[in-house]
Amino acid sequence: MSQLSRQRNFILFIFLLAPPSIYYVDPPTETGTEENVTLACHASGLPQPTFTWITPDGHAVNATAPVYESEVLDDGIENRRGKIVQEDGSLLIFNTRVVYQGVYKCVAINVVGQDSKTVNLTVKEGKNRIYLVCHFKTIFVLARVTRSSCIGK
Q: What ranges make up the beta strands (E) of 67-147?
């Protein structure tokens, strides 16, 4: 047999793994009651991490375990509240209550490890709306905004 016929082919698989690393969480956030707020948490890792949020009262919320509450109002209408982890890892809190305020912990997890960071949520009684009067040339406009500023000339 010649030297050439004895060659063997090898297939080499390289698996790259990296533990989660949270590179962004929202700064402290303030909202009013009966509003919706999203707390962002972004992480890198291989494989891509999944997210679990720990609420101030100690409940774990993740993609497979959302938290829902409901109450029936005097007029018979059902009012739903809850916390849901969205596809991007952020936590959606809808129909906020004052008791929802506190420190929320985002935990990013994969097979290699985990990382966590916290964000503080303040919930104040009433709607968290700001009313600005903007001057555009000689016309005054009253605008309702929640997180932007009035820019005009």
A: 67-72, 78-85, 91-94, 102-110, 113-124, 130-136, 139-145
- Asked if residues 152 and 85 have their Cβ atoms less than 8 Å apart, the reply is no
What is the model's pTM? 0.73
CB atoms within 10 A of CB 61: 21
Tracing tokens 């010649």 back to the chain, one arrives at 2
Tens digit of each residue's pLDDT (9 = 90 or more) over 136-145: 433 334 444 4
Cα separation of 31 and 91, whole Å? Answer: 14
Give burial (CB, 10 Å; 0-12/13-18/19+) of 49. Answer: buried
Question: Which residue has tokens 């999203």?
Answer: 38
- Three-state secondary structure call for residue 4: helix
Cis before 47 (ω within 30): yes
> CA dist 70 to 73, 78, 99, Å?
10, 7, 15
